[in-house]
Amino acid sequence: PDYDANETGQDTYQYITSTMDKGDDFNARFHKRGTGAYAKEASEKLDELGIPGIKYFDSTSRDLGEGTRNFVVFKPEDLKILKRNEEKVN
Fold it and tell me: Number of folded domains in the chain?
């Protein structure tokens, strides 16, 4: 598909999950989309393409379009925890 500057990351992720299994009929794909049926496969594909995770505004920042964010990393082994509750972790 063509690039759409107004498309969100969620739109892209849902598009990927909706096209994971071409063997399903449209209604089956539609009902699976966004439910996690293909979430693992979509995350693995994005990771293969060099996209290790996603970030998005948290619930209090979302409407403002600025503020703090949440991060989802597809592979936990890609993370190294440095601090927990502002205390260094060994």
Answer: 1
Q: Is the pTM of this model over 0.70?
A: no
Total Cβ atoms within 10 A of residue 56: 14
Per-residue confidence in pLDDT tens, the chain, 90 aa: 566 777 777 787 777 777 776 555 555 555 555 556 677 788 888 898 898 988 888 888 878 878 888 888 888 898 898 999 999 998
CB atoms under 10 Å from CB of 17, counted, come to 23
Task: Judge whether 33 lies within some domain.
Answer: yes
Range of the domain at 73: 9-88
- Give the up-direction half-sphere exposure of residue 25: CA atoms within 13 A in the CB hemisphere: 1
Q: Are 17 and 38 in contact (CB under 8 A)?
A: yes
